[in-house]
């Protein structure tokens, strides 16, 4: 991925770059790590929903692997990383169908083949719409979601990726630092989630019925897979490690994630009286999100600061949906939008000027210049994604309806959309008793992260 202000070639010896087997192999491994993040996200989200929605939640992530891969091969890579047109979009006929690319043709001035760069970037494109799905749990048509995914990556993700990372992209030229996707992935997905929510509306029983996670072990498994895969997401984004920047990104990813988890848990203990597994998993993801744009621009101490700030801010933000009345089912806005904004802006404070970029943040003598650039990037991606996502969702809703029928939502979207259930309990002890849920201890943050003590004693179906 074009790493912002500098390129990998700046750290290489003078002369034409040649293919590096080591960097090529490394980036292929990183591509596989990023790919496993989408199934990891499916488990993370799947554990957070009720039993009747598990399979649908898994499928809303998995379908992205199919849809986005096909579109990326056909035209997505060309739109995102082809020759620039006005700083807004790219195109290159050789990238259509990935058919005009030489086997050993290098990506720009890097040491890796175009094919390897293309597949690495594909995995970023795959997971971004999958992130949006967590905000829509329990209540949307699977066909409508699949159509939205195809349209959204085409008119939102591919152009924004070009703005941020494409050679000639206007945010790239402005000097906005986004090492691995704070704007293009997380703010983009979080703003899109808000836009679609304004069309789809709230779940039946929001703020009234208990909507606790059905399987916290699945949540922890998903968070662990995300943490594992994120090293490919971040460290791989330098496209090699000839100058050590990838190693710094790796260390910063670990440091920020750990700090964010501790920050979230500390806030949770003070606010709700307990350290929860859901809080640990969510705090880790918040740290991963926040360090994504900053991991190549800050020191390890800066990464700790980014992590703990993001952990506390995101822990506070997840409760805003109850105050403002938007039903962000699995806290995509609270974690990805808020975490992405925090990480992107904190670059303007903690950038050292000695790792990825020569640009320095406010705390390193750089004044407000870089912070201003980061704010422009945040605001423009947020507004574009929010408005276009709202319009796409509105159009789909008018044409085919975005939301499932009320009786299907009550019964469960798994049966309605997939004719399956996640767990077969008919042989687990006999008849109706085997299917009857038992009461679970109240989550210290209340139902679905905090509807309050009035619903804490209810039993989820």
Q: Overview of this structure, please?
A:
This protein is mostly helical. Helix content is 60%, strand content 1%. The radius of gyration is 22 Å and the shape is globular.
List the helices and strands and how they pair.
Layout (H helix, E strand, L loop, with lengths): L20 H28 L5 H28 L1 E3 L3 E3 L22 H20 L8 H24 L4 H5 L7 H19 L15 H20 L9 H28 L4 H15 L8 H18 L2 H5 L7 H19 L18 H32 L5 H6 L1 H6 L12 H5 L26
Antiparallel strand pairs: 1-2
**By helix and strand content, what is the structural category?**
mainly alpha
The CATH superfamily is Ammonium transporter AmtB like domains
> For the residues shown, what is the average pLDDT?
89
Give the count of helical stretches. Answer: 16
Helix content: 55-70%
Strand content: under 5%
Query: How many structural domains can be distinguished in the coordinates?
Result: 1
State the CATH architecture: Orthogonal Bundle
Termini Cα gap: 45 Å
Q: How many extended strands?
A: 2
CATH class: Mainly Alpha
Radius of gyration: 22 Å
CATH topology: Ammonium transporter fold
Shape: globular
């Amino acid at each position: 991925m074009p790493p912002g202000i500098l390129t990998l070639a700046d750290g290489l010896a003078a002369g034409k770059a040649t293919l590096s087997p080591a960097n090529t192999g490394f980036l292929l491994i990183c591509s596989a790590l990023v790919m496993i993040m989408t199934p990891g996200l499916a488990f993370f989200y799947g554990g957070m929903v009720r039993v009747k929605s598990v399979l649908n939640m898994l499928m809303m992530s998995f379908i992205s692997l199919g849809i986005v891969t096909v579109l990326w091969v056909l035209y997505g890579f060309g739109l995102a990383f082809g020759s620039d047109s006005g700083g807004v979009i790219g195109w290159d006929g050789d990238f259509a169908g990935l058919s005009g690319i030489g086997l050993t043709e290098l990506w720009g001035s890097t040491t890796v083949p175009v094919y390897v760069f293309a597949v690495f970037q594909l995995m970023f494109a795959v997971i971004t719409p999958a992130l949006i799905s967590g905000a829509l749990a329990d209540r949307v048509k699977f066909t409508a979601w699949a159509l939205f995914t195809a349209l959204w990556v085409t008119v939102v993700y591919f152009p924004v990726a070009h703005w941020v990372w494409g050679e000639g992209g206007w945010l790239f030229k402005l000097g906005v630092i986004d090492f691995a996707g704070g704007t293009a992935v997380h703010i983009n997905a979080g703003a899109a989630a808000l836009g679609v929510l304004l069309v789809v509306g709230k779940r039946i029983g929001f703020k009234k019925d208990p909507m606790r996670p059905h399987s916290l072990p699945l949540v922890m498994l998903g968070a662990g897979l995300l943490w594992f895969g994120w090293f490919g997401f971040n460290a791989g984004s330098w496209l090699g490690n000839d100058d050590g920047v990838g190693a710094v990104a790796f260390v910063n990813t670990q440091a920020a994630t750990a700090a964010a988890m501790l920050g979230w848990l500390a806030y949770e203990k003070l606010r709700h009286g307990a350290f929860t597994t859901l809080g640990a998993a969510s705090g880790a993801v918040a740290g991963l999100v926040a360090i994504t744009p900053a991991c190549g621009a800050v020191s390890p101490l800066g990464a700790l600061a980014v992590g703990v700030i993001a952990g506390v801010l995101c822990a506070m933000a997840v409760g805003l949906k109850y105050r403002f009345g938007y039903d962000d089912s699995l806290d995509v806005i609270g974690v990805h939008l808020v975490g992405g904004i925090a990480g992107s802006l904190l670059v303007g404070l903690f950038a050292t000027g000695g790792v990825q970029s020569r640009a320095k943040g406010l705390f390193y003598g750089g004044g407000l210049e870089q912070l201003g650039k980061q704010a422009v990037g945040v605001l423009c991606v947020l507004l574009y994604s929010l408005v276009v996502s709202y319009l796409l969702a509105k159009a789909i809703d008018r044409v085919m309806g975005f939301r499932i029928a009320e009786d299907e939502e009550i019964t469960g979207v798994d049966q309605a959309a997939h004719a399956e259930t996640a767990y077969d309990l008919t042989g687990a002890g006999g008849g109706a008793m085997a299917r009857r849920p038992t009461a679970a201890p109240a989550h210290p943050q209340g139902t679905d992260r905090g509807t309050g003590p009035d619903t804490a004693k209810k039993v989820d179906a």
